[in-house]
Records
---
Amino acid sequence: MRSARKTKTVDAGKAPTAASTMNAIVQERYGSAEDFRFARIPRPEVAENEVLLQVRAAGLDRGTWHLMTGRPYLLRILGFGLRGPKNPVPGIDVAGTVVAVGSAVTTLTAGDEVFGIARGSFAEYAVAREDKLARKPVNTTFEQAAVVPVSALTALQALYDVGRVQHGQKVLIAGASGGVGSYAVQLARAAGAEVTGVCSTAKLDLVRSLGADHVIDYTEDDFADGSHRYDLILDIAGNPALSRLRRALNPTGTAVIIGGENGGKWTGGFGRQLRATALSPFVRQRLTMFVSKERSRDLERLTDLIEAGAMTPSIDRSYSLDRVPEAMRHLEAGEVRGKVAITI
Ligand SMILES: NC(=O)c1ccc[n+]([C@@H]2O[C@H](COP(=O)([O-])OP(=O)(O)OC[C@H]3O[C@@H](n4cnc5c(N)ncnc54)[C@H](OP(=O)(O)O)[C@@H]3O)[C@@H](O)[C@H]2O)c1
C-alpha cells in the first residue's frame, strides 16, 4: 500500500487558492458512515511513480466498508492504521483523467482517460500508481469504468488464474448478485461454463439477466443438498462450512474461497480459508483461498473483455460525492444489486 499522506482540512485563515484545494470525503477514525465528512482539503501531490487524476467517478466496494469500520481488526495489524485509517480519504476504485505525472512515469500522459486503483478516490483529485491503472474502455462511461476495478479484478483472477475455469465446466457462484459476483457470472459465461448463481429472492432476476443458466435462492434451497455437483465453486458470500463446499464439489473439483461477511470481528472468519488450504493436500478436491492483486495488466484484460462485449458493469445506483454516507448505508443494508458509483 502507498505510504499515507497527512490530509488536513484547510484553515480558512490561510486563504488557500482554489487551485490547491479540493472537495473530498474525510474520515479520521474508524466507525460508521456517520464519521464521513464532506470537506475542503489540500490536493494530494504526486510521487515520482504516480499520476494525479481528476476523478470523474469512483466505485464503492466492500473493501471501503472494511477500511471505514476497521473490521476485521486483523486489518489494523496488517498496517492499514491502528486507531483510524492511515489514508483519511476513503475510496479505492477510480476512473478519471490524468492531469499531472510523476518524473518516473513512462506510460501515461496528461489527458489520458484511465481507470484502476487510487486510494483516496472519494475526492475531486486522487493520486494513483502508474502500475495500478489502465486505459478506460472506450465503450463505458466514467461511472461504469469506476465500478470495475476491485470487484472485476477479483472475479477475473479467481475464475481464470486460480480456479482455471474450462469451457463446459459446471460453475457455482455463491454471492452472485454483489460486486464480485455480478462480474464472475458474466466472465464464467464468457469462458463457456454452465453457470449457477446463488443469491437472495429479490436479486434472482438480476443474476439471470447477467447470464446465469441456473439460479438458487439461498433462502429457499441449499446449493449443498447433494442434488448437484460442480467442477468449480467461487465462494464469495455466505461463509459456507468447508464440509458443505466439499459436498457440492465434484470429487476432483476446485473451490476458491474469496470472502464472506459476518465471519467474526477479529479475523473475519479467515480460519475457514486457512483450514481449506491445510486440508487441500490431503484430499482429491482442490480447496484454495485467494487475495486479489491490483495490477495494470489485469485491468487491461478487463478493458479488452468489456470492449469485446463479454462483460458490462451493472450499476445499481449513483450518488454524488456529498452523498457517500447514503451510498454506504445502501451497501450496508444489503440492498445493492451489482455495484454503486460515486459521481464527482
Ligand atoms: N479475496 C479478495 O481478494 C477479495 C476481493 C474483493 C472482495 N472480497 C470479499 O468478498 C466478499 C464479497 O464482496 P462483494 O464486493 O461482492 O460484496 P457485495 O457487493 O456486498 O456482495 C455480496 C453479495 O453476497 C450476497 N449474499 C449475502 N449472503 C449470502 C449467502 N448466504 N449466499 C449467497 N449470497 C449471499 C448478497 O446478496 P443477496 O442480497 O442476494 O444475499 C450480496 O449481493 C466480501 O466479503 C469482500 O470483503 C475479497
---
Amino acid sequence: MSQATNKISNYQKIIQQAKFQLSAPTFKLCPFDTGKEVAFAGRSNAGKSSAINALTNQKQLARSSKTPGRTQMINFFTLGNNEETRLVDLPGYGYASVPEDMKRKWQIELEEYLVERKSLAGLVLLTDIRRPLQYFDEQMLHWAKDAELPVHVLLTKADKLKYGASKNTLLKTKMQLEKLDLPVSIQLFSALRKQGIEELAEVMGNWLELGEHWLELTE
Ligand SMILES: Nc1nc2c(ncn2[C@@H]2O[C@H](COP(=O)(O)OP(=O)(O)O)[C@@H](O)[C@H]2O)c(=O)[nH]1
Ligand SMILES: [Mg+2]
C-alpha cells in the first residue's frame, strides 16, 4: 500500500469509529467549543443521513428518513475515541412544511454557528446532483465565505445520472462556484454505490488533522 492510500485508509478507520455524542436543540446547547469538528449541511432529502451512514460504515448512525425535517436537532458524533474531534449533522433546511418563523430562527442560528464556532474546521455541503446549489445552498456558501470556512461540496445521489451526465454536472457546478468566487472543492458522491467515500475522508482527515494526532493509534 502506498503512503497516500495508507493515510486515507487510516482517516477512514478513525471516521468509522464515529459514536453518537448528543443531540442539541439549539447551538447554545452544543458541546464545548474546543477541538475540531466538521459539519454536514444540506437541504432536507439531499442525502445527508445516508452519506453519514455510508461514510462511517454504520447503517443507523444518522437516521435516514423519508419524512425529513421533522426534528430540527443538531447531532454530534465523536470520531475515533476523542471527544475533541467531531462530526456534526446540521438540521436539513428548505423543508416546505416548516413554519416561516421557525425557518428564520434556524437561519439565524445556522449563520451564527458557521461564523462563531471556533472548533468548526470545515463544512461539507450536500446537494442533490439533479438540482445542485439551490438558493439556500448558496446562502450557506456565502456565510462560509464570510467566516473564511473551507467548504467541500458533495453532489449526492450521483448514481441517479449516467457517468457522462454526472461528470458534466460536476464541471458545470464547479464553474458556477468559481463564478461566485468561492474557492471550494467538489466531488461526486453516492451513498447507494459507496462512491466518493475515500475522497471525502481525505478532505475531512486533512481538516481535522487526523494525521497528526491519530495515525500512530490506528496502525
Ligand atoms: N439513489 C440514491 N438515493 C439516495 C442516496 N442517498 C440518499 N438517497 C435517498 O434519498 C432520500 C433522502 O435521503 P436521506 O439520507 O434521508 O436525506 P437527508 O434528509 O438529507 O438526511 C432517501 O429516500 C434515500 O434513500 C444515493 O446515494 N442514491
Ligand atoms: Mg437526515
